[in-house]
UniProtKB/TrEMBL annotation:
Keyword field: ATP-binding, Cell shape, Cell wall biogenesis/degradation, Cytoplasm, Ligase, Nucleotide-binding, Peptidoglycan synthesis
Gene3D superfamilies: 3.40.50.20, ATP-grasp fold, A domain, ATP-grasp fold, B domain
Purpose of the protein: Cell wall formation.
GO molecular function: D-alanine-D-alanine ligase activity
PROSITE patterns: ATP_GRASP, DALA_DALA_LIGASE_1, DALA_DALA_LIGASE_2
SUPFAM superfamilies from the UniProt entry: Glutathione synthetase ATP-binding domain-like, PreATP-grasp domain
Family to which the UniProt record says this protein belongs: Belongs to the D-alanine--D-alanine ligase family.
Name this protein carries in UniProt: D-alanine--D-alanine ligase
Necessary cofactors: Mg(2+); Mn(2+)
Recorded name of the encoding gene: ddl
Catalytic activity, EC: 6.3.2.4
Pathway membership, UniProt: Cell wall biogenesis; peptidoglycan biosynthesis
Length: 321
């Protein structure tokens, strides 16, 4: 009996050029192992500037994009894959570029009725000079993920974050400054346009930073979240609305904050290529619905291949599964 992806050649993109390279390497290894268990021929590609030449030589049936952050998740790699007419996983060029740009994504989502935080873009030197909005507030890069370069300025802080003007700052001249929403960190994965569940993320050290996200034991994930029914319903609805508003496809993950004292729920951002590591949220939510990791990877790959067939850029032979 043949395996679901038997005979299918999958180029697995991982690593890449962004600050999230290490996470992508882990995601890529996990997804590649699943693809191999499913019977695919997997070629691991550490995606650099020569990606077009590498893929032209490989001629894969489908590309599994396990990159995170700049270059791999912001529409650049997606543009290369479109030019090469290769089916690929996750969202397309426009949705990827929009979701990565927090300011533009917030504008599009707000216009569609998604509740998002206030604030806006400010020059990093102005942000370091004085409080541009009243504390408490959050400062973060406009186009990074995984909580890289995020600072929370609480009430009573003597000065704004000086790290944004340090020589080591590489995240652009403008930064996003938003009011800080106290309360609980929530996440909702959306698969094929439908929300899977709500996860309540409880960081061990008080803030869901990079280490809390990816370090072993850095946070506790409660799925399904213990929330009032109307909050669960609203969180899932907002995630679906955001996914649709940005034009996403495949699997995404929305990050939200819930102020459980004032009953305020806001959607912070949408991740078009959510992490696929042992501590990642989307695989946990899929498992909660009865879909194990291998089946999730299979669905993501089949979805990409089927769209390629429908678009005339992949073989019209029998799709896997």
């Amino acid at each position: 009996m043949s395996l679901p992806l038997s005979g299918r050649h999958v180029a697995l993109l991982y690593g890449g050029l962004s600050s999230e390279r290490e996470v992508s390497l882990v995601s890529g290894r996990e997804c590649g192992a699943a693809l191999e268990r499913l019977g695919a021929k997997v070629t691991y590609v550490d995606a650099g500037r020569d990606l077009a030449q590498v893929l032209t030589a490989l001629k894969p049936d489908v590309v599994f994009n396990a990159l995170h952050g700049e270059w791999g998740e912001d529409g650049c790699v997606q543009g290369i894959l479109e030019t090469l007419r290769l089916p690929y996983t996750h969202s397309g060029v426009l949705a990827s570029a929009l979701a990565m740009d927090k300011a533009k994504a917030k504008a599009v989502m707000a216009a569609a009725g998604v509740v998002v935080p206030g604030g806006g873009l400010f020059n990093r030197f102005d942000v370091a000079k004085d409080h541009v909005i009243a504390p408490p507030y959050v400062v973060k890069p406009n186009a990074e993920g995984s909580s890289v370069g995020v600072f929370i300025i609480m009430e009573g802080a003597n000065q704004p974050p000086q790290e944004v003007v340090a020589p080591s700052w590489t995240f652009g001249e403008e930064v996003m400054v938003e009011p800080y929403i106290r309360g609980r960190e929530l996440a909702v994965a959306v698969m094929d346009g439908k929300a899977l569940a709500v996860t309540d993320i409880v960081p061990v050290n008080g803030f869901y930073d990079y280490e809390a996200k990816y370090g072993e034991g850095g946070s506790k994930h409660v799925v399904p979240a213990d929330l009032p029914a109307h909050v669960t319903e609203k969180a899932m609805k907002l995630a679906e609305m955001a996914h649709a508003a940005l034009g996403c496809r495949g699997v995404t993950r929305s990050d939200l904050r819930y102020d459980d004292i004032n009953d305020i729920l806001v959607l912070l951002e949408v991740n078009t290529q959510p992490g696929m590591t042992p501590t990642s949220l989307a695989p946990e939510q899929a498992a909660h619905t009865g879909m194990d990791f291998d089946r999730l990877v299979l669905w993501i790959t089949e979805d990409a291949y089927a769209r390629g067939v429908a678009g005339g850029i992949a073989s019209s032979g029998e799709t896997p599964g």
